[in-house]
Amino acid sequence: MSLESLPCGLTCATLLSDFFTSKSQGSYIDISFHPKMKPFLLQLQSQFLMYDVRNVLQLQSSFSVRIYELLKQYEKIGKRIFTLNELKDTLAVADKYPLYANFKQRVILKAQEDLENYTDIRFTFEEDKRGKAVHSIIFSIYSNKTVVEERKQPESNENDVNEEVSKVYNAIKTWEGINLKTINEWLEKYSPDYVLERIETVKKQQANGTKIKNLMGYLQKLMQQEVLFEIKPLANTKSSTDKKQQNLLQATIEQEEKALESLRISYYENQNAIIEHFFNTNPTVKEHFIESIKLRVDYNKQLNIEENLQRPSFKAAINAKVKEMYPLLFKELDESFKQQETAIKQSLRALGWKG
Predict the structure, then answer these.
(1) Which one has a higher pLDDT value, 45 or 306?
(2) Which CATH code is given to the segment(s) 55-149?
(3) DSSP assignment of 63-89
(4) pLDDT for the residue 9
(5) Most exposed of 54, 113, 186, 219 (fewest Cβ within 10 Å)?
(6) Is the pLDDT reported for residue 129 higher than 50?
(7) What angle do CA 130, 133, 135 make, to 5 degrees?
(8) Structure confidence at residue 134 as a pLDDT band (50, 70, 90)
(9) DSSP letter at 209?
């Protein structure tokens, strides 16, 4: 068998060039690489994939790790294309996810989310279709500047930052989510006294028994609030403030209530838009879904599908079902909504709101 016909993957033991027995010191083997192997060995330095292990330590999905490795190899090129069958074979899931919608949801979108949150690269992708079926996936690869910059940040140390940053940091260093980047952004917009006043306000609320789940989210909300009110129950406020102050307080509450209602309407509209886009890009899934909802007890058989979908109660039920089956579609929207809703409610309750 010639070297050219050797299958890729045989060990170096196959490439013995000399084998002899020593007359005086016993038997031993002397091994050397065949000269034709030299180009391949030299390529290891330049082509072997090397990456910072921090990029995969937090990836819980083995698919996310593998997709990271596949895309990291092409980071400088910025694009990589797989046929759907190639990608499934590479990830060893050819038989596990026969439906593309499931494969996309649980493998590709999961990897996209994981890489965005934890690694030094991120990606977007396009679906190349042949008819209605997806034939290829086109990955566009980008440097994940958010993660890269966070890793460049020095450890919080009073010797590494100026006095103002250090003072703010020490005031909230035990809070989850705190980092020097956020503090510097605050101090670029506001004075140190302005920032520390709002930190003190949050701490007073905690001391008075107010439960604040997301301290950094709530503090960020207060940073945008130029006027701070002394936090007291509404009944006590009436007895300790004049009528003008009370009217101002009530006006602020009404303004925040309107903001809450507007947020909820926007959330519902964005949710509908996500579902509509999902159905438009996955017509087969939509067809299966429509067939299944015809069996619901609240489906009016005297109306067609589109007319049923216009009924608010039925549409809400459908939205809930889609969210149950495809939760990752709404993850970013839900997290943003929950954070904003919590911040507004906490601000309202701090003003004496009982809603």
Answers:
(1) 306
(2) 1.10.10.10
(3) HHHHHHHHHHTTTTTTEEEEEHHHHHH
(4) 40
(5) 54
(6) yes
(7) 60
(8) very high
(9) T
Distance CA 82, CA 91 (A): 12
CA separation for the pair 184, 164 (Å, rounded): 10
- DSSP count for the chain of H helices, then E strands: 17, 3
Q: How far is CA 132 from CA 99, 100, 129, 145, 280, in A?
A: 13, 11, 6, 36, 12
Taking residues 299-310, report their average pLDDT: 75
Between 120 and 291, the higher pLDDT residue: 120
What is the DSSP secondary-structure string of 167-191? HHHHHHTTSTT--HHHHHHHHHHS-
Residue 58, SS3? coil
Q: Which residues pair with 83 in a beta bridge?
A: 136
Amino acid letter for position 219: L
Please enumerate in sequence order all residues whose Cβ is within 8 A of that of 312, keeping only pairs 6 or more positions apart, or say none.
none
pTM over 0.70: no
Domain residue spans of the chain: 3-47, 55-149, 153-228, 253-350
Q: Which range scores top for mean pLDDT: 38-42, 78-82, 192-196?
A: 78-82
